[in-house]
Amino acid sequence: GFTTWQRSLALLADAGFRLVSLTPDDDAVHLADALEGHAKVALMVGAEGPGLTEHAMRATHVRAQIPMAPGTDSLNVATAAAIAFYERQRALR
Q1: What is the model's pLDDT at position 69?
Q2: Burial letters for 38-62: b for 16+ Cβ neighbours within 10 Å, e otherwise?
Q3: Which of 52, 59, 53 is nearest to 19 (CA)?
Q4: What is the widest separation between alpha-carbon atoms in the chain?
């Protein structure tokens, strides 16, 4: 069966939210591209260092990355969330 967090994500998806997981993975799309054109977005962030699990990212619609300087491997979770919230607000203008 589903765990509580999986049920919560399913409820958000059923309510029309685009589920976006943040990751520094080079294969992830640019954050702005992941947000564009979606009225409702739910952002998932993980701990600095390990980030989100593969299992958690598979439960989202898209994996997105915040562009960073070469050699930067991760951001503090509060910083990543703040940048993602800013980008979301900027995209709505």
Answers
A1: 86
A2: beebbbbbbeeeebbeeebbebbbb
A3: 59
A4: 41
**Residues with Cβ within 8 Å of residue 68, at least 6 apart in sequence:** 24, 75
Structure tokens belonging to residue 78: 């509060």
Strand residue runs (E) in the chain: 18-22, 29-30, 41-44, 62-65
Q: Show the tokens assigned to 45.
A: 């962030």
From residue 30, give the alpha-carbon distance in Å to each of 2, 4, 33, 44, 67: 29, 29, 5, 15, 7
Which residues of the chain register pLDDT less than 70? Answer: 1
